[in-house]
Amino acid sequence: MANATKPYSVAIDLGSGALKSFNKKVEVKLRDLRGFFYDRGAVDAAVYGLKNPTVYEYFENSQPSARGQMNFGVTTLNPGKVGSEYYMTRGHYHAKKRAAEIYVGLGGKGIVVMQTKEGRFFHSPISRGRIVYIPPLWAHRTVNTGEEKLSFFYAYASDAGHDYGTIRRKGFAKLVVEKGGRPKIIDNPKYSP
Ligand SMILES: [Fe+2]
After folding, report:
1. CA-CA distance, 58 to 73, in Å (whole number)?
2. What is the pLDDT averaged over residues 152-171?
3. What is the rounded CA–CA span in Å between residue 75 and residue 168?
4. Is residue 5 part of a domain?
5. How much distance in Å is there from the Cα of 163 to the middle of ligand 1?
6. Residue 170 above 70 pLDDT?
């Protein structure tokens, strides 16, 4: 299957979002996200109190990092909050400027937040049956605003690279928080453009 120089196919269970075959699995725990949530005190309390829960995992068909190849996989993001901020992925820019990405929602409910270094911002709902197109140059982060696991299929150029550091240093311009029982997108007071 992976390191594809030959065509291949894999099965996906569209009900659960489970990919039947993958060569890379990454589990991201709350402690790994300490620098990404707004309220670091709440992260520390939750890491301690909840024994460092898993926030998200991804299961990937990873190809060699070479021009023209694509990686694809499924991300599953657990429901939960840190303070009032919903569980989310770190978010990243692609290291390579000319690299878009496609998401296909499989289950659950959430929001994909996107921004450019020039200060543009966009957000899209993601849920089963919705496709989100992320153009080159747009950072992207997925937030689970529902009460169930959020899962989505993704595909991107295998040589795109991931720049997590810019988001770690500067944050995302907007935060997705729960207010009065509903998700609300607010300005991030700590954001430094
Ligand atoms: Fe990406």
Report:
1. 7
2. 96
3. 20
4. no
5. 9
6. yes
Q: How many A from CA of 139 to the centre of ligand 1?
A: 8
Task: State the CATH number of the domain containing residue 46.
Answer: 2.60.120.10
> Cα(89)–Cα(77) distance, rounded to whole angstroms?
8
Quote the pLDDT of residue 3: 57
Domain count of the fold of the chain? 1
Residue 143 Cα to ligand 1 midpoint, Å, equals 14
Q: In this structure, is residue 31 part of a structural domain? A: yes
> Are the C-beta atoms of residues 98 and 185 closer than 8 Å to each other?
no
* Cα dihedral 59, 170, 83, 134 sign: negative
Q: Within a domain: residue 85?
A: yes
pTM > 0.90? yes
Write the pLDDT tens digit of every residue in 73-98.
999 999 999 999 999 999 999 999 89
